[in-house]
């Protein structure tokens, strides 16, 4: 008996299989996981596996989780009474032990354990940076084979932990994150490993939703408002889905947190669509040239899960949410502010979320007394580098015009080195 089942958002069909990381039902809707039991975290267990709302039966990997704490520094500066920080990264003095310094490590852990438990033998992952590092790390820790594809434009800000350097990584010379996804699909067919599935993979979303599981177990209730920077939107959708599970549970509040989601201007297709009241992203807002002008390329996908049923548009609509577009200089000053206030460095994407929180306070979109959860999606890189060796990624370069014959040759190379 499985403790969960998978259901289609659109037609409500319950799937016969409990493994469906890469399949679709209705093409324009997301599948979601339904858990049989109420929220029952194991009190005497550490890490993410103490949560019963994860699609994994017998995890083998030890995986630390987020640290959620009540802020005094930043809360004081912003005049907020009940601000909680979900810190995802490396900050051992605070109990945070995520050595890849990103919340994507929860996604990778749940996806790999979910796939492994269902007989999947390997996986192809497309990433703009953080997801690559997380999967590479957990592939090297678990021995689960992963092939990673990243756009070359993201390489300059990409690093791996020393132990991940043998994980096969391909860099796309002539394309962005979206082209990397297209190529990942092509290569996955040849390699016989499935593509990780992006937002469609229920394990990916439930893994990112761990941030809310940890927050609710710490705070004892759902927050009123939730702040996060979004690229594909997968993390925000995950938090909304988890909040719906909490509402059904009934013991943690009667209203889902209002989603306050932010992007880095000028590449902010979801901000622009939402402000126009549109479920469709405008083509001119997806121009790759705009990506070159932002600080946070890790949140630069041109294929966000916005329009799909159960996606970001629906999540914003359901929660009375709001979107914020933040300029590069606002992002940098928010990063400095956070470090000064809380005592730890954060990544630029997390700076986008902090900047959005500053703006929301200034424009009265939140109340001083609200319980607010701020998702710091990555941080602590400075401290990590003092203790561990990090390396620049050394990929094999390929073109999106790669022929099937060249993919075949690559496959031999990958399987030999992998
Ligand atoms: Zn359906």
Structure description:
The chain is an alpha/beta fold. It folds into 2 domains: 67-98 and 207-384, Rossmann fold; 121-193 and 389-417, Rossmann fold (3-Layer(aba) Sandwich), CATH 3.40.50. The protein is built from 14 helices and 15 strands. The strands form 4 sheets. Strands 3, 4, 5, 10, 11, 12 and 13 form a 7-stranded mixed sheet that branches. α3 (130-142) links the parallel β6 (123-126) and β7 (146-151). α2 crosses α5 and α5 (202-208) packs across α7 (234-249). The radius of gyration is 20 Å and the shape is globular. The chain starts with a strand and ends with a helix. The structure holds zinc ion. Zinc ion (ZN) binds at residues 8, 10-11, 13, 25-26, 29.
Q: Name the helicity range.
A: 25-40%
Instruction: Summarize the main sheet.
Output: 7 strands, mixed
The CATH class of the largest domain is identified as: Alpha Beta
Summarize model confidence as the mean pLDDT.
92
Tell me the span between the first and last alpha carbons: 35 Å
Determine Rg (CA atoms, Å).
Answer: 20 Å
Would you tell me the structural class of the helices and strands?
alpha/beta
Enter the CATH topology name of the largest domain: Rossmann fold
Q: What's the helix-strand series?
A: EEEHEEHEHEEEHHHEHEHHHEHHEHEEH
Q: Can you count the helices? A: 14
CATH architecture of the largest domain: 3-Layer(aba) Sandwich
**Ligands:** zinc ion
Q: How many β strands by DSSP?
A: 15
Unreliable residue runs: none
